[in-house]
């Protein structure tokens, strides 16, 4: 017999290993990560396209596990507005991907209408090189 609550908890715990949602609670852990590369998906979590974007984002995260920390940033949270301004993004430009190298603050931003695993790979590989 499957316990829905336990199954949901299991999925959420394992989801965090691939994609971490950025918020005031997780911010410290994200900043203290041993990974020097972060890839942010900056998007509206309320969008009808959100579940499909996350599916593709998680699939790409699997490919870069241990190399790039994949982070979801909800553009609807007021507390995330400083991140948008850091990357010089307006809500009208979202969704967007932002890759960031922590030691030297080097970063790149890509505004996207549709997200695909291939597009994520191209963006990550170009930045890593």
From TrEMBL:
- CDD domains assigned to the protein according to its UniProt record, in alphabetical order: PDI_b'_family
Any one Pfam family match given in the protein's UniProt record, by short name: Thioredoxin_6
Gene Ontology cellular component annotations, sorted alphabetically: endoplasmic reticulum
Q: Which domain of life is it from?
A: Eukaryota
Q: Name one GO biological process term.
A: protein folding
Assigned protein family: Belongs to the protein disulfide isomerase family.
**What protein name applies here?**
ERP27 protein
């Amino acid at each position: 017999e499957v316990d829905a609550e336990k199954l949901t908890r299991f999925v959420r715990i394992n989801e965090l290993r691939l994609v971490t949602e950025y918020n005031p609670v997780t911010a410290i852990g994200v900043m203290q990560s041993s990974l020097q590369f972060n890839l942010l998906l900056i998007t509206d979590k309320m969008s009808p396209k959100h579940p499909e974007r996350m599916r593709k984002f998680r699939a790409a995260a699997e490919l870069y596990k241990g190399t790039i920390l994949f982070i979801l940033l909800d553009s609807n949270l007021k507390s995330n507005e400083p991140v948008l301004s850091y990357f010089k993004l307006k809500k009208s430009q979202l969704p967007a991907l932002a890759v960031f190298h922590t030691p030297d603050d080097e970063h790149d931003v890509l505004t996207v209408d549709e997200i695909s695993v291939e597009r994520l790979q191209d963006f990550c590989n170009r930045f890593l090189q």
